Amino acid sequence: MSDRVAGSLTVSDDVFADLAGYAAKECYGVVGMATMGSRDMLSVLPGQRLRKGVGVRRGEDGELVVDLNVILEYGVNVSAVSRNLVDSVRFVFKNIAQISDVTVNVHVRGMKVRPE
Q1: For residue 73, what are the β-bridge partners?
Q2: What is the pTM of this model?
C-alpha cells in the first residue's frame, strides 16, 4: 500500500493551528490558550477553540511560523515552560506533519491560578 499517487495535497493553516494548540495545551504549566489581540480582557479558550490562540504564517524563508498565545499557571518557571512549549510543538510538527522547519514564538498573555 505504498504506491505513489500523482497530485498535490494542500493543508489548511487551521490544521496546523489545531496541532500546535493541542500540543501546547498538554504542556505542564499551561492553563490554556488566550484569544489573539485581546488586550482588555483575558479569557481562556475552551478546548474546541484552541486555534484562536494560535497564529500560523509563512516566514521569509518559507518556514512555518507558529505564534502561541498562552496563559500560564501562576508560580511556574516561565522560561522553562516556554522552552517546553517550543520543544513540544516542534516535536508534534516533525512527527505528525513531517515538517521540521518550524519557528515557534511563545507569547505569555497572562498568569492564572489553575482551577482545582
Answers
A1: 112
A2: 0.81
Closest CA to 87 of 106, 108, 113: 106
State the Cα–Cα distance between residues 74 and 24, nearest whole angstrom: 17
More confident residue, 36 or 78: 78
pLDDT for position 102: 95
Give the whole-number percent of the chain exceeding pLDDT 70. Answer: 83
83 falls within a domain: yes
Alpha helices (runs of H) in the chain, residue ranges in sequence order: 13-25, 78-95
Beta bridge mates, 102: 64
Q: What is the pLDDT of residue 39?
A: 55
Cβ distance 30 to 72 under 8 Å?
A: yes
**Total structural domains in the chain?**
1
CA proximity to 23, closest of 106, 91, 76, 111 = 91
Contact call for residues 72 and 31 (beta carbons, < 8 A): yes
- Please identify which residue in the block is written with the cell numbers 498565545: 69
Residue 94 lies in a domain: yes
